[in-house]
């Protein structure tokens, strides 16, 4: 993708997960949280202690998750165990899955494998248990359903694609966008 900076995109994704977490646990409105990040957490290269990010990409993810949350949550919930619905997951894990699912569903300009790889890397930074494998399994199922052509699947194959989260393999690293 022309013009995309992988490091800035990664920072945008991490920040989006953090912002969604903040919204979930505090109940803060999304516009307030977006403004806080834009005004107080993002900075420039020479500004110590500040994060450099693709601010427009961050805002797109956050606004997109809020706007499409029902569709996103349904897609995630359908791929989780009945014993562990989305509402029972850790708030950070919910935020990560929502952010990644938004990108898979709404950012066809970014390859699905890049999105999965990026969020797997974030999951391994945030969690040390089985969560990264579960993230990989859920995102793989969603991506194969939403973007079957990228995986060489017909729509009927994508609908029947099942990957057990515990048996899911990590997507190999690839160049971002």
Question: What this model shows, in words?
Answer:
The protein is mostly helical. The protein has a single domain, classed as NusB-like (N-utilizing Substance Protein B Homolog, Chain A, Orthogonal Bundle). Helix content is 61%, strand content 0%. It has eight helices and no strands. It has helices spanning 6-26, 30-41, 55-67, 69-77, 91-106, 112-126, 131-146, 155-160. It starts with 5 loop residues before the first helix and ends in a 17-residue tail after the last helix. The model is unreliable at 161-177 (pLDDT under 50).
CATH topology: N-utilizing Substance Protein B Homolog, Chain A
How much helix is in the residues?
Answer: 55-70%
Briefly, what CATH class? Mainly Alpha
The sequence of SSEs as H and E is HHHHHHHH
Q: Using the 3D structure, state the CATH architecture.
A: Orthogonal Bundle
**Rg from alpha-carbon coordinates:** 16 Å
Mean pLDDT: 85
Tally of DSSP helical segments:
8
Q: In one word, what is the shape?
A: globular
What number of structural domains do the residues give? 1
Question: Briefly, what is this?
Answer:
This protein is an all-alpha fold and 177 residues long. The protein has helices at 6-26, 30-41, 55-67, 69-77, 91-106, 112-126, 131-146, 155-160. The longest helix is centred in the N-terminal third of the chain and has 21 residues, at 6-26.
């Amino acid at each position: 993708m022309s013009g995309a900076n992988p490091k800035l995109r990664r920072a945008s994704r991490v920040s989006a997960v953090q912002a969604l977490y903040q919204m979930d646990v505090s109940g803060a409105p999304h516009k307030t949280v977006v403004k806080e990040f834009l005004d107080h957490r993002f900075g420039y290269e020479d500004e110590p202690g500040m994060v450099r990010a693709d601010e427009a990409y961050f805002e797109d993810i956050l606004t997109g998750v809020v706007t499409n949350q029902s569709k996103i949550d349904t897609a995630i919930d359908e791929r989780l165990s009945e014993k562990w619905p989305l509402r029972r997951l850790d708030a950070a894990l919910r935020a990560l899955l929502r952010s990644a699912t938004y990108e898979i569903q709404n950012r066809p300009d970014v390859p699905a494998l890049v999105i999965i790889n990026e969020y797997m890397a974030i999951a391994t930074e945030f969690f040390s248990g089985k969560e990264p494998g579960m993230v990989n399994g859920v995102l793989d199922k969603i991506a194969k359903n939403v973007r079957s052509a990228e995986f060489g699947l017909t729509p009927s194959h994508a609908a029947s694609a099942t990957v057990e989260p515990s048996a899911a393999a990590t997507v190999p690293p690839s160049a971002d966008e």
